[in-house]
Design goal:
The complex is a heterodimer of chains A (192) and B (202). By secondary structure, chain A is of the alpha+beta class. Chain A contains seven helices and four strands. In chain A, strands 1-4-2-3 form a four-stranded antiparallel β-sheet. In chain A, helix 1 packs antiparallel against helix 2 and helix 2 runs antiparallel to helix 3. Chain B is of the alpha+beta class. Chain B has two domains: 90 residues, Up-down Bundle (Methane Monooxygenase Hydroxylase, Chain G, domain 1), CATH 1.20.58.220; 73 residues, Alpha-Beta Plaits (2-Layer Sandwich), CATH 3.30.70. Chain B has seven helices and four strands. Chain B has a four-stranded antiparallel β-sheet. In chain B, helix 1 runs antiparallel to helix 2. The termini of chain B are far apart. The chains are: A alpha+beta (192), B alpha+beta (202).
């Protein structure tokens, strides 16, 4: 296979991983917005939905420009289908967020469910002098230190889905959930 | 066609239903991508089975809603809950669509799988052989994450699924373990589960 060909496939995978991560991040945030009754998180989901549409179109165009032979068409169809699924997941996540944003007072049944949680969402910015900078999430031990769980990272207007090997950078906004008492600890850790 | 069973009402808290739906959807999606990208029929079938479970949960949630609604005001408030249930159902349908790429023999271009494997961790499933040294051990005792970078994300025991199993859960013979990790660790893990490797290296 030519180098150019290989590069093309690498780009397809890269774009697909971005689609997949974005849709899963939306799902995580949407469920969290519901369980924590957070409009802020729900708004983040809506914002990602717009971004997602653009990503999906670009992905489809890239796959379609692969110049495949007729007998290869099926395995490219598989890729197109994967893309469609990420879009479906994103749509479903946006629907969940919409329920939160419509802000109808939750019914006692749901209210009970939410209050049992006693958890909150917090947004903290990582400052230059924080010990978190340049550590991966695995190394940072945020849940152990603060009891807060990082749901997403906002970096330069983009959202990053946190993975164990994700490195924390100065200026990152950590979106985290957990018991209210952990909020102060996280703030101290991120912006001392 | 699977046989469709009657779903009986049982009281479960809405929060519990939501949490289970959330966990199931996440697991299904992970399993489905792995199934499609590595052309794994067994994983694909697990996804389809889990989809059936989400369907049942959706029914149960709808029943909770119907019982809770007494007047127009209730209906207004509960409509949101029902909307969420339908969104959760859509997510699980999406996962089933990915699994269908495998079960319908459409497949994914092999070079894509090859590149994907380098950037993302993959999932595996393995059945615990009766002579595996893992039997009777607690998950935290095994310390798989530190030893080989592998996490057990679900256990299928007979008809039941334990999702994100507790650290104190013990491995039983015949369990099907679903784990995530880097290719090297996954290989060692599979050998341990299948009883081909009889020693837990430090």
């Amino acid at each position: 296979m030519s180098r150019k060909h290989r590069k093309h496939f690498e780009e397809i995978v890269e774009r697909f991983v971005e689609l997949k991560d974005t849709s899963e991040l939306m799902m995580d945030l949407a469920y969290s917005s519901l369980l924590l009754n957070s409009k802020e998180l729900a708004e983040d989901v809506q914002e990602l939905e717009e971004h997602m549409d653009k990503l999906h179109t670009n992905f489809e165009l890239l796959v379609l420009s692969s110049g495949f032979k007729p007998e290869e068409a099926k395995s490219f169809l598989g890729l197109i289908r994967l893309g469609v699924v990420t879009e479906k997941i994103a749509d479903a996540a946006a629907e969940i967020a919409e329920v939160v944003l419509r802000g109808i007072k939750p019914h006692p049944v749901l209210k009970l469910a939410i209050e049992e949680a006693e958890e909150t969402v917090t947004y903290v910015q990582v400052t230059e002098n924080s010990q978190l900078v340049n550590n991966t999430l695995r190394e940072a031990h945020i849940p152990e230190e603060t009891g807060m769980w990082v749901l997403a990272i906002r970096r330069k207007g983009k959202y990053v889905r946190p993975k164990p090997h994700t490195k924390i950078e100065t200026g990152d906004v950590l979106i985290a959930s957990g018991y209210a008492e952990g909020e102060e600890d996280l703030k101290k850790l991120a912006s001392p | 066609m699977p046989r469709l069973e009657r779903i009986e009402y049982k009281p479960i808290s809405v929060r519990e239903l939501f949490l289970e739906m959330k966990n199931l959807s996440e697991l299904m999606i992970d399993l489905a991508y792995s199934a499609a990208l590595f052309n794994d029929k067994e994983l694909a079938e697990d996804v389809l089975e889990l989809e059936n479970r989400v369907d049942i949960l959706t029914y149960l949630l709808d029943m909770e809603i119907m019982i809770a609604a007494r007047d127009a005001e209730d209906a207004e408030k509960l409509a949101g809950v029902s909307k969420v249930a339908s969104a959760a159902d859509k997510i699980s349908d999406a996962a089933a669509d990915i699994a269908a790429i495998v079960t319908q023999n459409i497949g994914i271009h092999p070079i894509v799988s090859e590149v994907f494997e380098k950037v993302e961790e993959r999932l595996t499933r393995a059945k615990v052989n009766e002579d595996s040294i893992l039997i009777g051990k607690q998950i935290d005792e095994l310390d798989l994450a530190a030893r080989m970078g592998v996490d057990i994300i679900a256990i299928r025991r007979n008809k039941d699924w334990l999702i994100n199993p507790e650290d104190t859960e013990r491995v039983k013979g015949g369990d099907i373990l679903i784990a995530r990790g880097a290719p090297f660790g996954i290989k060692e893990f599979k050998e341990l589960v299948e009883g081909k490797l009889q020693r837990l290296e430090d």
